Amino acid sequence: MPRKQPAVSPVYRLDEIPEYPPEGVVLGVAGGVASVLPRSLQNLAPDAKQAAGRLQLLANHREDIEEQIDHAVAVARCLGVSWPAIGWCLGVTGEGARKAFSG
Predict the structure, then answer these.
(1) Separation in Å, CA 79 to CA 1, 5, 45, 97
(2) Distance of alpha carbon 88 from alpha carbon 8, whole angstroms
(3) Which of 10, 69, 74, 94 could cross-link to 83 by cystine, CB 3.0-4.6 Å?
(4) Reported pTM
(5) Does residue 39 belong to any structural domain of this protein?
(6) Is the CB of residue 24 less than 8 Å from the CB of residue 34?
(7) Strands 26-30 vs 33-36: parallel, antiparallel or unpaired
(8) Is 89 within 8 Å of 77 (Cβ atoms)?
(9) pLDDT per position in the chain (103 positions), as tens?
(10) Are 67 and 75 spatial neighbours (Cβ–Cβ below 8 Å)?
């Protein structure tokens, strides 16, 4: 039996969001990640909607950035960079960096 295709929502760029978008409208897609507009955002002013959309897109990239940092710390340690130096680069103490990344 063929799989049912998902319903298609209209997609808008962040600067094209209609004043009263329908529930579940996709605000934008970046890197394969879609941002969806819930009811709590529907009555915001256009500039507030744009700010909320940007916040959501940045939050979606957080996991990718954390993985890149984990890898960069591992490479730095392999090359002999000390925990105090790594901590300084990350804005934490050397002990904080060691606790967060050694394991």
Answers:
(1) 54, 50, 50, 16
(2) 47
(3) 94
(4) 0.53
(5) yes
(6) no
(7) antiparallel
(8) no
(9) 455 544 445 555 655 655 655 555 555 666 666 655 566 777 788 888 888 878 877 887 888 899 999 999 999 999 999 999 999 999 999 999 999 999 7
(10) no
Q: Is 59 within 8 Å of 49 (Cβ atoms)?
A: no
Structural domain that includes position 97: 14-101
DSSP letter for 30, please: E
Q: Is residue 3 part of a domain?
A: no
With residue 29 as reference, give the H or E element that holds it.
strand 26-30
Residue 97 is assigned to a structural domain of this protein = yes
Domain membership flag for residue 65: yes
Q: Report the domain count for the chain.
A: 1
Burial of 53 (0-12, 13-18, 19+ CB in 10 A): buried
